[in-house]
Amino acid sequence: MALKVPLRRRKPAETGEDGLVRMSLVDHLAELRRRVMICTIAIGLGAVVGFLLYNRVLGFLQAPYCDLKEKKGLSGTCSFVITDPIEGVTTRFKVSAFIGLTLALPVVLWQVWRFITPGLHSKEKKYAIPFIASSILLFALGALIAVLTFPQALAFLISVSGDKVETLFGPAKYISLYTLIMLAFGVAFEFPVVLVFLQLAGALSSRRLLRSWRMAIVGIFISAAVITPSQDPYSLLGMALPMTLFYFGAIGIGRLLGK
Question: What is the pTM of this model?
Fold first, then answer.
């Protein structure tokens, strides 16, 4: 005689009078697992595309090095040198993963947004969309400025080594430096978003920020010198000058939103 086991149905989420969705801890964990799985699949599919586009992306990353050697008349080839048998494979997987994350970024941000939306009030949702959109645009702008600044930074690093040194770069360290600079610029350019958020939260006031502008500029330049992986003056200025403009722009936006 077969035993009939009643199936446990998940209790639907309840919406309170304040517009917030009430969910149990188990429901939260299940929702989080589903969102993480979607993000993982999206990154995996993007990595497959990145694996196929590896040679083109590698040529794009290698272009500043080749252009510099051609302009300066440096000896030797601009091809990367591999001294480890598995370095070529690991480099291709790293670049593919980086491309996959970049291509899947809209999906990842959408899943994060969908996960946190039920816990936000209507007023918070109104501010969340501009914050997310501006964060994406500022990160992309920072990565773009990093790409434009990297050739000058690379030229500085090579010139400092002296005329008697022949440069032979390995792909792993070169690509790691390039991507770290892009990441550092992208994260640093989120600075105005943080300032506006602190003003809306009441932790800082626009008047206080305006009074402390001298110390803030000194702190920005010191932070830029520490954050930039290449430690060159071009990357420092390329990061510090826009952040200085962002500082005063965030003060103005904070005043407008406060009114």
Answer: 0.77
